[in-house]
């Protein structure tokens, strides 16, 4: 590894030391050369130092390399062509090793940045809990989802429910569980799972929180749609011949009824009533078939302020708005991506229901329509009234097909509204308004 330049340097330094030593020995034999003896001694010392420095250069370079590695100082260089040290080959080797370390460090930094970006932008909310119970929101999804608490202890997360706090304490390790959690004021079901990892010599729990309410709702809607499709198909197959025969019988009875026989007249009336009821059942079944058809969403950018004004005008133009005050609130500059036609149907239906409830209950009926941004960044739409509200035990039932609290209700409107919202990958919930009535909250 040591080249010819090193050998040349070693030879002339060694030769200089030998000559200096011989000269010094000569001055010792002659007492009259005192000054020369001193000079010779200095030359011996100097040439010895040169030889020592030349021989120990390898150790110094290696020591400098080791110190650079120990302190992660990868900016050092080890090639000294201009010094004529004879260690060019050693310098190239050390310099190559230092370059490799620099490259590995840069690759490690790039990899860390990549994994940090992947972690931060992951769609699933991730939290870490250290051995002292300190909770850290590890990515953007977690910071958007968990915005109500204050503090970093597990106890501080009981704002989201005891079940969620127990999951953070380790209840979800190895056993994923469904946990109810209120996000943006809307109750949602979360799939919470956890794992234990090593970090800086200690153990850290990593907890993943994945909203699955949309998937559960989609499964429920699909099951309802399948059931309705089967039932309406069977009912219509059975009722079609009944309706046809009822109309044929009614036509025959009209021809036979000359007004002279009261029994014939009564029979005609009964058959005609049967025909009308058969038509009513067919119309009833046909109207419910629309629940089994998934709405087709055509998204586009919506200017919320203009859209809200349009909805308010449509509401005020309807007979349901008579005597009802509409309060409209829209966050400045708000926009969203949705199907304006389908969402307009949903909101108009909610506004009309709210007006009916308020008019029948309050002396000064009032309805509120509000558009704003939730803390998570999602678009939030609220329709509230000062009516009697919905009993707590019925709040989950109002979205079921055929369920209604109105004497003349069909039970279709809220079910269809839920289907439209779910088709937008959103959620809809029923809460109690500050005025005491119903509050429908939609997150898109």
Account of the protein in words:
By secondary structure, the protein is α+β, with helices and mostly antiparallel strands. The protein starts with a helix and ends with a strand. Helices cover 51% and strands 18% of the residues. A hairpin with a 5-residue loop joins strand 9 (366-373) and strand 10. The strands form 3 sheets. Strands 2-1-5-4-3 form a 5-stranded antiparallel beta sheet, with helices on both faces. The chain folds into 4 domains: 4-112, no CATH class; 123-211, Beta-Lactamase, CATH 3.30.450.20; 216-292; 300-443, Heat Shock Protein 90. The protein has helices spanning 4-29, 34-55, 57-70, 88-121, 140-145, 162-171, 213-256, 262-288, 304-317, 340-359, 413-423, and strands spanning 125-129, 135-137, 177-183, 186-199, 202-211, 300-303, 325-330, 335-338, 366-373, 379-385, 427-432, 438-443. Residues 81-86 have low confidence and may be disordered. Helix 1 (4-29) packs antiparallel against helix 2 (34-55). The chain crosses the membrane at residues 35-52. Pfam families: HATPase_c, PAS_8.
